[in-house]
Write a structure and sequence with these properties.
Elements lengths: L1 E4 L6 H11 L14 H4 L2 H13 L14 E8 L2 E9 L4 H5 L4 E5 L8 H15 L5 E6 L3 H9 L3 E6 L2 E6 L13 E2 L3 E5 L2 H8 L14 H8 L12 E5 L5 E7 L9 E6 L8 H15 L5 E4 L4 H9 L2 E4 L10 E5 L5 E4 L1
């Protein structure tokens, strides 16, 4: 029987047997490094380390620079530790290139026996419980066994970068209804603009994590509409691209929903267009709105073919508006629900 359990000192003897099986090789998803061995052989230090692995799951835990909250688990086979799994709750630019959401390792003596596939499927459930969907799982180009494991669990190959093969896997996580927190997408984080950031934008400031050309005129129009109460579900959000951590655009609403619909505006700096990023971002926002019971429609200018293509990919259909002038914006509806989306 394969199961994932939280690290515990009760399994210390089995843990060290697994470590010995790796014979000094890297144990992915463990938080352990070979140089830690002498220190962690002390029972008190080992207990503190195991406790820290558990605290990494808490969003309020202070973590070292470059670390993200993670759910750390040990793989048990019939009660014996045979591997490790870490489900990372977010991606940094470096994790987007190598590491991904899920890191795992199975001890050499237990490979080619279905342990890795079973553990990865359990890790996907754990990620779904954290509302992470999809997840990125990577492996070295030379690691064909790991690539087969990822494929067997539904992995879809995206690309290979500098010898690292990157796959995306669906977890089936329920979509979180829109709230005042960030919205996570495959390619970006949609982070509410703070009042301080809005003031800086309107003052014409530029910041190191803002891409060239940001904020655009439409981004400034959006922050001018922010209520005095500050960020909330319907206020503008920075589109923070995961690949480099840069703010490359914004997306947000023109106000709270009316009659079950919401009006949204979005756009990217020119250099960020044409890569599929806006399709990814708008898809996530639409699903969050719909999870809250809201409908979404869109308006585009007749000449804005790029935005029309994005909307069509996401299931929007153009709808005639009675009495509209020939050169008026086009109305697009997603499904049978209402709402307004403005594309730029």
């Amino acid at each position: 029987m394969i199961e994932l359990v939280r690290p515990t000192v009760d399994l210390s003897e089995s843990w060290w047997q697994m470590v010995d099986d790796f014979a000094g090789d890297t144990i992915h998803g463990s938080g352990y490094r070979a140089g830690d061995r002498d220190l962690l052989r002390d029972p008190g230090a080992f207990e503190e380390w195991v406790d820290w692995l558990g605290r990494m799951e808490r969003s309020d835990e202070a973590l070292p620079e470059g670390r993200v909250p993670s759910s750390n688990r040990w793989i048990l086979r019939d009660g014996r530790v045979v591997g490790t799994v870490a489900v990372r709750h977010a991606l940094t630019p470096s994790l987007l290139l190598e590491g991904g959401h899920i890191g795992y390792a199975v001890a050499p003596g237990h490979r080619r026996q279905g342990v890795a596939s079973a553990a990865l499927r359990l890790a996907l459930r754990l990620a779904a419980g954290r509302r992470i969907d999809p997840v990125l799982v990577t492996c070295d180009l030379s690691n064909t066994a790991s690539a087969r494991t990822i494929a067997s669990c539904g992995g879809v190959l995206e690309d290979e970068r500098d010898g690292v093969v990157r796959h995306w896997l669906a977890t089936g996580a329920p979509v979180r209804p829109i709230d005042d927190g960030p919205v996570e997408t495959r390619e970006a984080r949609l982070v509410p603009v703070t009042r301080e950031q809005a003031a800086a934008m309107l003052a014409g400031e530029s910041r190191p994590d803002w891409a060239d050309g940001y904020p655009r005129g439409d981004d400034l129009d959006a922050v001018r509409m922010m209520p005095p109460s500050g960020p909330g579900p319907w206020t503008p959000r920075h589109v923070v691209r995961r690949s480099d951590g840069l703010v490359v655009g914004s997306i947000g609403c023109f106000g709270p929903p009316e009659d079950g619909v919401v009006e949204v505006g979005y756009g990217l700096v020119p250099a960020a267009r044409g890569s599929g990023l806006m399709t990814d971002v708008l898809s996530a926002m639409c699903r969050s709105f719909e999870a809250a019971g809201l409908g979404v429609v869109a308006h585009t200018l007749p000449a804005n073919v790029a935005s029309q293509r994005v909307l069509a990919r996401l299931g929007f259909v153009r709808s005639e508006e009675p009495g509209a002038a020939p050169d008026a914006e086009w109305l697009w509806k997603r499904g049978s629900r209402g709402g307004v989306v403005t594309g730029t």
